[in-house]
Amino acid sequence: MTIYVPGKVTLAKEFTWNETVWNPSMISTALWLDSADASTVTLNSSNVSQWNDKSGNGKHVSATGAAQPLYVSAAQNSNNIIRFDGVNDVLQRTAPLITGTAARSTFIVAKDLNAGVVFDYGADQAMGRYSTRLNAAFIGFNTSNIQWSTIGDAQYGVYAFIQAGSTTNSINGFWNGTQYSFTDSVQPTSVINTASGVITVGCQVDLSGFGQADVAEIVVVSGAVSLSVRQKIEGYLAHKWGLTANLPSGHPYKTVGPTP
Question: Which of 38, 144, 242, 260 has its CA 20 to 30 A from that of 80?
Answer without folding.
Answer: 260
